[in-house]
Amino acid sequence: MRSTLQVTFAAMIVAALAGADWRQFRGPDSAGVSEERGLPTHFDAKENVAWKVPLPGSGPSGPIVVRDRVFVTAASAPQQERLHLLAFDTATGKLLWERQLWATGHTVCNSFGGVAIPTPTSDGKRVYAFYSSNDLACFDLDGNLQWLRGLAFERPLTRNDVGMGSSPLIVGDTVVVQMEDQGASWAAGIDAATGETRWTVDREREANWTSPTVLRGANASGDLVLLQSKSRLTAHDPRTGRQVFRYDAGCSTMSSNVALGDRIYLASGGLTALRYDRATGSLEQLWQERRLQPENSSPVVHDGRVYVTKAAGVLVCADAASGKILWQLRLRGPIWSTPALAGDLLYVVNHEGLVQMVRLGDKATLVGTGQIDKGILASPAVADGAIYFRIHQHLWKIAAGRP
Questions:
Q1: Is 33:341 a contact under the CB 8 Å cutoff?
Q2: What is the CATH number of the domain that holds 223?
Q3: How many domains does one find in the chain?
Q4: E strands within 230-343?
Q5: What does pTM read for this prediction?
Q6: Listed residue (119, 99, 100) closest to 22, CA to CA
Q7: How confident is the model over 286-302, as pLDDT tens digits?
């Protein structure tokens, strides 16, 4: 019999994800979970590849899906100073529009990543594209520029020669961007409609590539933004930036947290589960398990279980209520991308482009594989009966029954 916690998780996620797009990094509520079912358990050159289209530049940013369109960013030119946002038709892969901008900030970065590192986000009306150069651009779904911010103009030392990797987050009518490095380190809340700054907060001066997440309240007015840094996790009012609580602990600068209900799963001391009591404003540590330490990718939490993918290729499953490890499965690494869970399948892709489909349950079974281009860092998107993979210079759509 499932525990009350498991039933609560299941009901909450089904309600949140039914019919959902994949509008941001790790999808709805940054959880890496979709309720889509019937996705393929294998694909090859002759089966289940709906389309594959070229991109004009490189980048490890993930795709997002809004209604009948899939959006992706890229960067080109010798110093990757040319920024791209592209929209494709989900059914055919046809390019609907492309917009290009010149970077206004720092574009020198490690060639392993690139300038188009952050995954774009959407509120269903507009698309917000953010780049390692700290340029933030807003377009409507038809490609009309709404506003543009060169955030490095405000603080020119906002730069990291490895590359800035935090993806933007929309909470209500605010776009939250997190820019943390050894120089000017800060986060900002931007009015989604106008591009005007609502608030800024100074952050720890350390390189950090985690992305902001949202801790949902009983209603939208109770939502909080979580900002994870090297030595702390803080929660903020998304309209004002006011700090609501702070948890001091060494945290991952790569693996972002997952927040579901009143629980936060944080890559700290391995993996730490926290509970936030909204009535009292207190934060309680429920458990900590060092063997669940996430590495390059972020954890996935669903139906009362936590899934952590180790860089070398080990998938670990644990009970979300206690942190007790339930099983492990050896896969093939190295793995950078955060997996996507759809129905009872977990899609894990390694850097060599091997997509490994794992059926989840009381034990895990590798049920199929597929091969895409090498060099994948981006996390996949799941929507409308398909899964989308972005490789440096291609975008793939995988769907069952496609010739």
A1: yes
A2: 2.130.10.10
A3: 1
A4: 232-236, 243-248, 258-260, 263-266, 271-277, 282-289, 300-302, 305-309, 314-319, 325-330, 340-342
A5: 0.93
A6: 119
A7: 999 999 999 999 999 99
